[in-house]
User: Fold Phosphonoacetaldehyde hydrolase from Clostridium baratii str. Sullivan.
Amino acid sequence: MKELNNLKGIIVDWAGTMVDYGCMAPLNVFVEVFKEKGITISNEEARGPMGLKKLDHIRELSKLETVKEQFKAIYNREICEDDVVEIYSNFEPKLLNILSNYAEPIEGALELVQFIKDNGLKIGSTSGYTKEMMDIVKVHAKKRGYEPDYIVAADELKEARPYPYMIYKNAIELEMYPICNVVKIGDTPSDILEGKNAGTWTIAILNGGSEVGMSIKESESLPLNIKEEKINKAKYVFKSLNADYIVDSLKDVKEVLREIDKRIENGEYPSR
Assistant:
């Protein structure tokens, strides 16, 4: 039975939201390519700009004081745009080489997709990956049962996240209107900002996402106090961005969609 009568569409992120628990694929590659330049960055630092277009991600990492200090100590000059481009040129082939191994749907993803489709809604998607990267991920995700109705990669438009244009492209192609009756689901600050800037409802995912930053193994083995610290830190970030909803996992999204649908019926709009 159809339950969602007011929503017009759902737009999701990829890595860390629907596939690749913990958004692990890019993480080690970011750390590796900076290490090749003699620069050490922590996993937490590497995750900071996650969700942005990958060239922009490296550009943001190059602005970290720890990175600038290490670079200047080694090369006796400031890090510059040419260095960013060089690091990215090393990053891209390494990531492309491993992406096929990181397309497994996160627990709850396929069930959520079925629920959305049962309600006659389309599923759009945006990503910080380039089209070349997404061409790999989408093929291997499809083999595992996951295939949204539309994909917009970070390099297909002039500006990617946090700008709203990838969401708008999805909305145009999938005829999602009005945009205030659309939901954006993601696991990074840039996902939430993208949704906010577009005027959609926003749902932030904790477990499995990059902002919490735990692999499946870590989520099963880390002490409870450490896990809670990571989760609470991510909650604080998403609350500061005024995400409409913050949920533990994809399993909680169905109930949130039901609630949003009722709020739309009552004349409510997404928070700004």
